[in-house]
Structures are given as C-alpha cells and as structure tokens.
Write a structure and sequence with these properties.
Mean pLDDT of chain B: 88
Structural class of chain B: mainly alpha
Number of helices of chain A: 12
Largest sheet of chain B: none
Helix content of chain B: over 70%
Largest interface: A-B, 52 and 39 residues
Oligomer: heterodimer
Shape of chain B: elongated
Shape of chain A: elongated
Radius of gyration of chain A: 20 Å
Number of domains of chain A: 1
Order of helices and strands of chain A: HHHHHHHHHHHH
Radius of gyration of chain B: 19 Å
Distance between the termini of chain A: 47 Å
Number of helices of chain B: 2
Distance between the termini of chain B: 31 Å
Largest sheet of chain A: none
Low-confidence stretches of chain A: none
Strand content of chain B: under 5%
C-alpha cells in the first residue's frame, strides 16, 4: 500500500517536473522568433507546444535515463527519485522567477545526485560520470554554439548585407518558423524522454512492470507528452524575455542564424552521439549572433548572470534534493514522508506565487 | 576503477563539424533570400532575364535548405 502511494506521488511529481521543463525551456525554441516578430507570442508558443507534443512520440529510448552513469543504479529508490525531482522543480522555478535560462536536465541530475548522496553516501555518486555528462557538455555546448552562430551571421550579412532590408527581413522571419520548429521538435524528443524514463523505472521498481520486458506504457507516453506540451504552451515569459531581448536586440537575420546554428549544433551533436543541453546551445548561439556584429551589442552582465545560474544548477539542485530526501526520511521509510514533503512544497510554491501576484501581474505574452 | 569516458574524437569532430554545418545552413538560406530579393528587384527594373536567373538561384537554394531541414528531422526521428 505504502509503495503504491509513493509510486503515485513519484508519477505526479515527474509530470510536474515535465510541466516545468516545458515552460522553462519554451524560450529555447521561440524567444528569438518572438523578439524579431517572426511570429506572435501566442502562435509561437502554440507551435512549440504542438511540436513538443509530437516530438515526445518520436523516440522511446528510455533505457538511457537521465541519471544513468552518474548515480549507481543499485542505490536508486523511488524516494530518491522523488527527492531528485523536487530539487529539479525547485531550481527550475527559482531560475524562472529570475528569468534565467538553465538546463532542466542538469537540475534533475543534480537533484538525484544530492538525494542519493544523503541516502547512501559518496559511493552512490559516480564522479567521472558527472564530468562526462554534465561538466564537459556544459563547457562545450555554449562555446561551439557561440562560434557557429557567430560565423553563420557573418556569412549571412556577407550575402544579404547590401540588399533592401524589407524583403530580406521577411525572408529570415519565414525561415525562423522552420528553425524554431525544429528546435521545438528536438526538445520534445529529448526532454519528454526523461519523464517517461523516470515513470517507467518507478513502475518497474514497484513491480507494476516486468524488468525483463522493459517497455513504456502508452499512458506514460501520452501523459508525458501532454505535460511538456502544456508547460510549453503556458510560456515561461520571463525567460523568453531574457533570451529574446535582454541578451541582445536581434534583427531577423541574427534570429535565424542563432536558431539555425543552434538547431544544427544540437542535431550534429546528437548525430555524433554527444547530446548537449538545448538551453546552453541556444543561449550560446544568441550571444554569438550578437557578438559577431558588435561585441558591445551583447549585454555581458545578463550573460554573466546566466553563466552563474549554470554553474549553480548542479550544486543548488543537489542541495534541495538532499534536503527533500532528508526531510522525507524524518517521517520514516513509508509514504508519509513524500506525502508531507509534497504538501509542504505545494504550499511553498503557492505562497511564493501568491506573493508575486500581490506585487503586480507577472510578465505576459504582451510584455515580451 | 572507472576512467573518463569523454569521447575526444567525437568532441573534436563536433567542434569543426557543427560550425561548418551551421554556416552551410545559414549561407544556403541566405542565398535563397538574396535570390528572391534580387529577382524581384531585377524584374521591377525591367531585367526579366536576370530576374529569372536570380529566381533560379532562390529556388535551388530554397530546395537545398528544405533538404537540410528534412535531414535534420530524420536525425531527430532516427535518434
């Protein structure tokens, strides 16, 4: 009975994480399209939501779950997964509050690492795995994207620089619909998998699925796809504003170069078996597209805040995951701990959002 | 003892391949936009032949861009 209750809580928390992943990462696909007026804000997030939903059905390679190779599998329990998800959700909400794009995958890894560390000690964490899957990609992704978008915009200006801006801008705006669409599809394919993997593993751990016949139930695919699509459609307007206009003011050619280079880097990396964070890639390519024109066009203060958020993602999510696990265990090994932790987290989020609403309306589509 | 599993070869390939692919995609689409713009301008100026030549450039570059998008979608679909 207790394990069934924990399973239900883990599934609900995983879907909540999927939702925050969607609205936190909406900016990756749509921010530049919105800022260059290639699409209206609502149309852009609607398209991204549809493509995220579709992307979730494309691939079902859940075997490689997000924390595999980073945390020893034998130490993983449903309570650790639950605490890790709490860490990731909390960090996603905190960075959304400050309008800072950060990697949802790294937040989830951090949360699970923190919870596993507190539960089983340092032996549970594979340090080399952290370097392989988190630190090296976090250094490579923004740099490669920066250079790619920088070179791309220089070539684009070379080709269209002396032409009438009217039709050129219209052309690049049209191109941004396709480049943004590919980014949204890639995001749905990659990120919805994490939630599907977590729910499926929880079902296996609870005995609802046979480990020998590992498959993702259809309801898990549909609910994960729906959660990430709903989150995307909600639109994380604060991060969209940061990505779309606070780093640089973009023209449509820069917007296309940033998105096109970003999409190309993500797909090239996937093709070479080297998956990168969409957030890090798009942030790097937006800065590259701006800096190639004029270094001072990039607001380096905003970029510095983003870099700081990236550095803090792993330890901060780990600390929250560890706290969530420790708090749950105060109430024993049963379902009571996760139940009370969930109620406390929901109350905390409601209170924070309530205070925010009292101070005035949040950033909306019209303000981006 | 575990060893670092970073695929250095893959990383080096990514460092040169990704910028090259990004430049190729952007330059091809830019050629499409430039061709379409110059085609319109030439025909307005009465240079119909030149206009059609630029239109051919735009169509070819547009087709190449669509082919690259299709390759991108295939990469996503096939993982």
């Amino acid at each position: 009975m207790d394990s069934d209750v924990i399973l239900v809580i883990v599934v609900a928390t995983a879907l909540a994480f999927d939702f925050t992943n969607g609205f936190h990462d909406t900016a990756n696909a749509v921010a530049t399209s919105i800022s260059t007026k290639a699409m209206s804000p609502r149309a852009a997030v609607a398209l991204a939501a549809i493509l995220n939903f579709a992307g979730a059905f494309i691939s079902l390679e859940v075997a490689a779950t997000v924390a595999s190779g980073i945390v020893e599998g034998e130490f993983i329990t449903t309570t650790i997964v639950f605490a890790g998800l709490i860490g990731a959700i909390a960090w996603n909400l905190a960075t959304w509050y400050f309008g800072l794009p950060s990697s949802s995958s790294h937040a989830l890894i951090g949360g699970v690492v923190g919870a596993a560390f507190v539960a089983s000690g340092p032996d549970a964490v594979i340090g080399i795995g952290l370097i392989d899957k988190v630190i090296v990609p976090a250094l490579v992704a923004p740099l490669v994207a920066f250079v790619s978008a920088g070179l791309a915009i220089l070539f684009a200006y070379r080709i269209v620089g002396r032409l009438r801006p009217g039709p050129v801008n219209r052309g690049f705006r049209l191109g941004q619909i396709a480049s943004g669409g590919i980014l949204a599809l890639a995001h749905g394919t990659n990120d919805a998998q994490k939630t599907m993997g977590i729910i499926t593993l929880a079902l296996v751990a609870n005995g609802n699925l046979d480990a020998a016949d590992f498959h993702v139930p259809f309801w898990v695919i549909v609910s994960s796809a729906a959660a990430i699509a709903l989150g995307t459609y909600s639109g994380g307007w604060r991060i969209i504003r940061t990505m779309g206009s606070r780093i640089i003011k973009m023209d449509p050619a820069q917007g296309f170069s940033a998105q096109g280079a970003g999409a190309t880097v993500i797909l090239a990396a996937s093709h070479l078996g080297y998956p990168l964070s969409t957030t890090h890639v798009i942030s790097g390519s937006v800065m590259g597209a701006g800096a190639a024109r004029r270094l001072s066009a990039v607001r380096w203060g905003v970029a510095g805040n983003m870099a700081m958020a990236w550095v803090l993602t792993l330890p901060a999510a780990a600390a929250i995951g560890a706290l969530a696990y420790g708090f749950s265990r105060i109430f024993g090994e049963g379902a009571l701990g996760p139940v009370i932790t969930s109620v406390c987290v929901i109350a905390l989020i409601a209170a924070t959002l309530g205070r925010r609403l009292q101070r005035g309306p949040a950033i909306t589509a019209a303000q981006t | 003892m575990r060893t670092l599993a970073v695929d250095i070869g893959g990383l080096v390939e990514l460092v040169w391949f990704a910028p090259l692919a990004a430049v190729l995609v952007t330059a091809t689409f830019s050629a499409c936009v430039a061709g379409a713009t110059k085609s319109t301008d030439s025909r307005r100026a009465g240079a119909v032949g030149e206009g059609f030549a630029w239109l051919a450039v735009a169509v070819a570059a547009g087709a190449a861009t669509i082919a690259m998008v299709v390759v991108g979608i295939l990469v996503i679909v096939t993982g």
